[in-house]
Each structure stands twice: as C-alpha cells, then as structure tokens.
Amino acid sequence: AQSVAQPEDQVNVAEGNPLTVKCTYSVSGNPYLFWYVQYPNRGLQFLLKYITGDNLVKGSYGFEAEFNKSQTSFHLKKPSALVSDSALYFCAVLNSGGYQKVTFGTGTKLQVIP
Amino acid sequence: EAGVTQFPSHSVIEKGQTVTLRCDPISGHDNLYWYRRVMGKEIKFLLHFVKESKQDESGMPNNRFLAERTGGTYSTLKVQPAELEDSGVYFCASSEFDRAGYTFGSGTRLTVV
C-alpha cells in the first residue's frame, strides 16, 4: 500500500518570506511524486512532479520540491511567498511499478500574510 | 488543447434525489479517473477507466454510485439515491498513460441537504 502524509493542516507565512509545505510518503517501490494546488473555487492544478533524475524539481509559479529518498520526503518550497500563493496544496504519490493509482495527502492550507 | 471539463460545477440536491456528474477528458486520453474529497479530508480514489472499461473501481463507496464511460469518451458518475455523506467535491482527471500525471478538472461541488 502507498500513503502520503502532510503533517500540517495549515502553514502561515509572511509575504516575501520563504515557505515550505511538508510531505512524506510511503511506497513499496520507486515513487513518482506530485504536487497539486487548489485555489479557492478552482480545480486542482498540477504544480510539479518527480519521476527520476535530479532530486530538485522546479515547477510552476516559482515553486520547487526536493526529493529526499532517505527521509522519504518531497517538501514543497518557494524562496519568496506571494499573497496569491494562498491556496490548498496536495502532495501525491504513485508507485512506479505495477498497477497503482495516485494517492493524495490530506492537503495543507497555505496562508500568506501581507 | 482543451482541458478536462466537469459539469455541473455545483449541485445542491435533497437527500434521496439522484444526481449525475459528467466529465469530459482531454481528447485522446484513454485513462479517466474519478476522485472525491469529503469535508476537508484527503482526496480519495473512486475509480479508473481505461477507454470504456473499468480498470479499478475499488474506491467506489457503495452501490449507490454508478460510473459509466460509454464509447470511451466522456464519463458520468451517478449517485442514486444521494445521502448526506455524499457531499463533497468530485474531481475527474485524465491521462494519456497511467503514470503520466493527471490533468484534473475543476471539480463538481455536491451538497446533499
């Protein structure tokens, strides 16, 4: 079985400060990892993914995430937060081997304070 | 390229009524998925179509839920009869390959009162 943990229900950060949204995963094989964002009254939007290769993945809107195999983590980061980054962020995992479906975490609400 | 389209965007129905949600995937995407997020919890898998066939329906909560994908194009998800606990946001996603990463629709917010 595969699972994703997002330990923080909400993260508050001041505008201009760096932000981190945490994600850890559990999967039996090699993981494919994803971050999605849901803005208010909008659907889920793809931010970035890790499949293989460089552990630091860059995505949309200046976000990046670092794959850490030893810590089974895939934290989402941004050097300087914007008020418009305020949204709900979901981490997701997929086992690279065999049939699986994407498993999502519970989501983290990011609040960027002006 | 048009994205994944879902409608309605919102639906409010009374307990016991029937609701049908529709999803139009990206053209050419054989894989279509339904997910649901209920009351601030995680986004949970409901089922997966490959073309018109159900690859995996292990996440369907009970037999009040019926999903179809006739002709391998759009899909419908019918809830009959709806219960209060069915309230949530229903997301549809499609992908070309089953590990390509999904493109999600904007979701249907279902409220059962």
Describe this structure in words.
- The complex is a heterodimer of chains A (114) and B (113).
- By secondary structure, chain A is mostly beta strands.
- Chain A contains no helices and twelve strands.
- Chain A has strands at 3-5, 10-14, 19-21, 24-26, 31-38, 44-50, 56-58, 64-68, 73-78, 87-95, 103-104, 108-113.
- In chain A, strands 2, 5, 6, 10, 11 and 12 form a six-stranded mixed sheet that branches.
- Chain A is globular, with a radius of gyration of 14 Å.
- With 113 residues, chain B is an all-beta fold.
- Chain B has no helices and eleven strands.
- In chain B, the strands form two sheets. In chain B, strands 2, 4, 5, 6, 9, 10 and 11 form a seven-stranded mixed sheet that branches. Chain B has a four-stranded antiparallel sheet with strand order 1-3-8-7, with no helix packed on it.
- In chain B, strand 4 (31-37) and strand 5 form a beta hairpin.
- Chain B is globular.
- The mean pLDDT of chain B is 91.
- The A-B interface holds A 4, 32, 34, 36, 42-46, 49, 90, 92, 94, 96, 99, 101-107 and B 6, 33, 35, 37, 40-45, 48, 55-56, 59, 91, 93, 98-99, 101-107.
What labels would you give this structure?
A: mainly beta; six-stranded mixed beta sheet; 12 strands; B: 113 residues
Return the structural class of chain B.
Answer: mainly beta
The biggest beta sheet of chain A, please?
6 strands, mixed
Number of helices of chain B: 0
> How does the helix and strand content of chain A classify structurally?
mainly beta
Low-confidence stretches of chain B: none
Amino-to-carboxy terminus distance of chain A: 41 Å
**Beta-strand level of the residues of chain A, as a percent range?**
over 45%
Which whole number gives the mean pLDDT of chain A? 92
Q: What does the overall shape of chain B look like?
A: globular
Structural Rg of chain B? 13 Å
Q: Largest interface, counted with CB-CB under 8 A?
A: A-B, 22 and 25 residues
